[in-house]
Amino acid sequence: MSQEKTSPRAIPLGATGPKVFPIALGCMGMSGMYGASADDEGVRTIHAAVERGVTLIDTGDFYGHGHNELLVRRALEGLGARRDELQISVKFGGMRSPDGAFIGIDCRPAAVKNFAAYSLKRLGVDVIDVYRPARLDPHVPIEDTVGAIADLIQRGYVRHMGLSEVGVETIRRAHAVHPVVDLQIEYSLASRGPEEKIFPVLEELGISATLYGVLSRGLLSGRKPSGPGDFRAHLPRFTGENGAHNEAIVERLRAFAARSNRTTAQIAVAWALAKQPKLVPLVGARTREQLDDVLGALAKPLSADELRALEDIVPPGSIRGDRYQAGQMAHLDSER
């Protein structure tokens, strides 16, 4: 399954951040969020991504209760000198109970520094390249959270600051305290919300974005929840009437992909690359096979005619259902 290293143009993370490969690897799915996963295959997938040129790896301290950071550490230890080619992005603040339930967000300054200390230890690194709160803590001013990250940067424990799933006002307030290199935000054919207000503000302020959910958690590539351990089984887009409606759209998307000699995953990634060429899709490949599939989009860009035809198949708002359950949607600052 070895592939030649791809060398497309690098994308800068904001005005002050590093340049990275145009597709990033998200590792959340390697820690059971989509059902059972294999650690060895996860490590091999990270290594394969680096071999293909990927330079930005994303994790979170609450993925698998720390398992994901330990998995990334295993991968880093097997890279030798190539470790220096990578940027590691870490989300913090999500709190989980022993049974896996999410029980809140904590972005108090003391908590920020505590989380960072444990991430540094689990990852086995001296510095985190991009550090970001996973969500806005409604009980803590964003200035306080950002100030704590800025202190970590000044002391050499963090290189750059990012944000995740926050709206325009929060972006402006955070950036006024310390430069933000990128916002992590969900964006896909199925989720076009950031186009209206968020992307214009990022452009104005010189902030990039890492775009997660480009496949809408596998919806756009035709995947379905694999069992009770797969959190997609509880998401509105995969269930009931919404699921049936969306499946019909995905069938038309699959036919379009077949006509253009691409997979549906390649179509979804190619669309994001075409719509937001200055931003970086963050793909959650769990296996080397999935990785090869999504990276294949780089060699098959969409033409202008294909882009128009694709958006006729999946126009804005055509995919039904919110991207999270109601309780989680209520906590998304980016949706306000």
From TrEMBL:
One protein family per Pfam: Aldo_ket_red
Domain of life: Bacteria
Protein name: Aldo/keto reductase
Keywords in alphabetical order: Oxidoreductase
SUPFAM superfamilies, per the entry: NAD(P)-linked oxidoreductase
Organism name: Pendulispora albinea
UniProt xrefs under InterPro entries: Aldo-Keto_reductase (IPR050791), NAD(P)_OxRdtase_dom_sf (IPR036812), NADP_OxRdtase_dom (IPR023210)
Signal peptide: none
PANTHER family per UniProt: AFLATOXIN B1 ALDEHYDE REDUCTASE, ALDO-KETO REDUCTASE YAKC [NADP(+)]
Domain NADP-dependent oxidoreductase: 22-313
Native organism taxonomy: Bacteria, Pseudomonadati, Myxococcota, Myxococcia, Myxococcales
Keyword Flavoprotein part of the UniProt annotation: no
Keyword Chloroplast: no
